[in-house]
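B., you asked whether I could sanity-check this one before it goes into the benchmark set. Here's the sequence:
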Amino acid sequence: MNRNALEISGLQAGYGKVQVLWDVNLTVGEGEFVTVIGANGAGKTTTLRTVSSLIRPRAGHVRLFGKEIAGHDAGEIVRLGLGHVPEGRQLFPLMSVAENLELGASPREDAWKVREQTRQSMFELFPRLAERQAQIAGTLSGGEQQMLAVARALMALPKVLLVDEPSLGLSPKLTQTVFHALRDVNRLNGVSVLLVEQNVRQSLLLADRAYVLEDGRTVQEGTGRDLLADPRVQQAYLAL
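And here's what the prediction gave me:
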């Protein structure tokens, strides 16, 4: 049985005096695709930001392949094999596509050495980026920027990839392009994926397993298909 790539237990975190996470518990196995769903304000983005040390945890544990990383330096966590595609993409808008990709490889020495091969792999994954590699990132369409954000994170050769709301602001067609790329990265490259996504139906169809967050707590888990068929999930997140 595969070991866990990522383990989160009893995680608490917040902003200033406001506590957002009270008791988040989840695991992502090696090569597994896991989705987190929940209402706005449930703590999904805060969970990812805490795992990647953009926010310091107040309590709990985060383990990457068994190594405690809670509260560690964010750069160190990238070097240990964790990638993060943040909400809002957060590209370097005045730099070119190629320059953004190159910066993605810079935190890890091993990734830097093979950056040319990895960049070609990214162009195969997202052919549109190959056509626009000299273009300034801030002038790309929303869909192209999201592709670039995913590709930039993958340039560091992560073993675990956190992805936050990749479909936000995208057309259904471009959403499918990004989702298919994440599926391929997971299935073909063996990268473990933890996805936070507003498109509940599509993300549960992609997921091996999924968790429901409510008010900063993990309240439900199961396979993606089981949660998709669950009446409580349907009523809360899929009702028209």
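One thing to flag: The domain at 4-238 is CATH 3.40.50.300 (Rossmann fold). Otherwise nothing jumped out at me.
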